[in-house]
Amino acid sequence: MIKLYGFCYEVGHLGVVYDFNPFDSVYNLVLKDDFTWLQRINVLVRFASLLGFLHTIKSPYRPLTVRNLDCAHIVLDKDYNPKLCDFGLVTGGIFPDRAKYKCCRVIGSYGYLDVGSWFEDVFAFGNILLSLISKRVFTEQDRQNLSPYVFKWAYTKFLEYKYGPDSDSDKDDSDRDSSKKHDSDLDLKNDDSNSDSSKKDDSDRDSKNDDSNSDSSKKDDSDRDSKNDDSDSDSKKPKFSLVHQSLVEEPDFDPSDGPKITALGMDCTHNDLGKRPTMKQVLSFLLNLEVVKKHATISLV
Questions:
Q1: Where in this protein does the record put region Disordered (predicted)?
Q2: Which structural domain range is residue 50 located in?
Q3: Which of these, 17, 101, 194, 254, could form a disulfide with 5 (CB 3.0-4.6 Å)?
């Protein structure tokens, strides 16, 4: 948080003095190639630490909630350390509910607002994380063009990864109907086979059973081989990651961190509030990334 030197209130005018010399905002830096993977992780770790502190502050009042988090409200100093500079909607502690005014109901920023629980900072942090790792940011032009928010884009990418780009509900229904028909045909064939076999003598039945067992054994082997092939295919499939390719190619990037930090961003923006982590859990997860373990420069001091 930026340091407050003092304030002055005279004749209805309030003035504040901060010790702050900003370099740029996260919003302006997200798309830039010289904003490195290590610097992005440093921003996430330090900012998660700040939110974790605000959310767990011990006092007789409620924990502090910022409620107005987005990439534009996080500015960096010359060492790329994040500073939170907008507290206009902060609630908790000695502050009242800033979301309710006489004139209108005030909400947070486009693309970082959770409709179901818009006061939750975890959701906004998840969007900031996804923006930083994927080099995407929601702009005013995106809003006018009705483009998807970053978290919706991420969810779409996950569905494409899991089901394929051409998957849809109609195709799933068609597959289910085809499966039911296939099962029905198998039942009819089994009934005909049983009827014919009852007319034959014992020796024919024994011979047929031997052939059936042989065919069944071959089919089981074939199915087993097919399942093994599918298993091998799944094991070779790379884990889901939204980390931008240019960041993946940086020397400080560890391949194991990509899927992990992507999953964290997806969890923070999960539709089910009960499945979202706390900021304390988020910080603990970030500190266990390989890039953080390898670089002592990323600290909470």
A1: 165-260
A2: 1-7+23-165+239-300
A3: 17
